[in-house]
Amino acid sequence: GLLAKHVGYEHSYPHCWRCHTPLIYYAQPSWYIKTTAIKDDLLRENEGTNWYPETIQWGRYGDWLNNNVDWALSRNRYWGTPLPIWRCPEGHLTAIESLADLGRRSGRELADLDPHRPYVDEVTFACPDCGAEATRVPEVIDCWYDSGAMPFAQFGYPHRGEAEFASRYPADYICEAIDQTRGWFYTLMAVGTLVFDQSSYKNVVCLGHILDEDGRKMSKHLGNVLEPIPLMDEHGADAVRWFMLASGSPWQARRVGHAAIQEVVRKVLLTYWNTASFLSLYARAAGWTPGDAAPPVDERPALDRWVLSESHRLARDVDAALEVFDTQRAGRLISAFVDDLSNWYVRRTRRRFWDGDPAALATLDEALRIVTLVMAPFTPFVTERVWQDMVRAVDPDAPPSVHLASWPAADVDVIDDELAAQVALVRRIVELGRAARAASNVRTRQPLARALVSAPGWAALPAELVAEVANELNVLDMANLSASDGDLVDVSVKANFRALGKRFGKQTQEVATTIASADPATLAAGLRAGSASIDVAGLGTIELSPDDVIVTETPRQGWSVASGDGETVALDLELTPALRSLGCAREAVRLIQEARKSAGLDISDRITLTWSSSDDDVAAALREHREMIAGEVLATDFAEGAVRSGSATATEGGLALDFVLSKA
After folding, report:
1. 369-388 residue pLDDT tens
2. What is the pTM of this model?
3. How far is CA 498 from the centre of its chain?
């Protein structure tokens, strides 16, 4: 009757991570290393160590050191390094310093002895204190001590390997997962400090754990383990390496799955490989080699100078990232550059490669060499293949392997920040122009008369870069939006009742009425600048934010407009007969090029082509642009005539075009 209340209390309790049964704690005698005596030394060594991420140093690991307890060294197991202590029946203890020492004490030749259980347990000697027989104690050493002794034990030091050990201690860099803060990271530092008064490492990268696609820790009993070898067999070792190094922060937990690694192959490795293959193809077609003369860099076109600038910027920035072990940033820089190189420089410069322009070929060769060198530590296999095919094949004096080549030295004189800003503006304008065209439903290959642009820095762009915008947007003329006559959009405004209701309550309707009666263009311009003022009866002058008003901009008939971040592109959608004719000719070029590819022709192969069309407009367009089409498709003969029945033909319903081609 003395118990007033009995309730359950839920608390955390350890369970076996495999079978999930509760664990039992029990105390037992153990041998210890008195690490508490060197606590201050450990804290000193930690202070001088570079941790990545730095939060671990005085967070998880620092807490562990500050709460240091003596190291329970012994284990009651069979396998392991035998604890080198012998005890006699009187309790006298003798520590053995080496196998040679044990041989001297026992009077036996032990050079061939396996120093593990059960063999070492058979060796006895007379106790130096009392003469009784001393036998080894039954315990073995914690295997983490073996790991902590690795820096000197691997050389057999101090019995041998003194020079090798001295030249390699402490290690410049170690890397393991975050759970090693109480494991290898600690034992390396503890053993090194105990024995040499110096930690075993200078820099340490602390990785996050590898999880499955659902964010669970991989475990055999859960059936969610991805074996690395099958994963590499399916996707390639380079793809797995890139994903682990560059697809996320190294010190964050990482979800690994097939889809994520396939994305690496598609976005990075294939893009890089295809760009290298592109250079090889066009260099071979032009008979060009890296030793051929090319114009000085400052005399090359703007895009050549830009991509070389970005190449050397890449070498500089990747080097800086790797100096602080930031593989994610390095990978992000490389991935972005590979995309820029392939999907902007190569695509915009394709015509010059077609013509065998030595400046373009030399530029792409240098850019690819640099990116190959900085990618090599991440993806050693594909970069080695590219190095052998692209570099060694034409330059026998080049290093025999990409991994024996020097790291690329960035030429800061080539890095042009102003040009980089100009090309960035060009690409933003192009994106807006593409958005405007997509909204208009006018196909990409249909030329338009003009595009109007409003953007800071647009007027200062060199004509060469303005021409790049015009070509990319497929417009015949570029002009400044401010020079155009009249507005290109109709603006309407209406109140956002949800936002206004929170501010004005019952007077929201009066505010909405005033907004509706205001000049839409003036109000919209003020809101774009940040805020606008209106006078409301009974409230006086009030300030409106962009959230208070719904602004709708509708392009006027014949125009498509896209805006973003203070930049605007307007496309003139009026299609004249001449524009339609040119658009028809460009569609014909596309069809013929696809037919060339399907026929397995080489890029330099000349063809003969016969075409016919039942559409008078299509026929007229092909006649008008005969020379342009023939030049684009490398046709030595571009003839209008009857297409033979049974011949290989390509027909486009929209063009009503039939043609047959053959290698000239």
Report:
1. 999 999 999 999 999 999 99
2. 0.81
3. 42
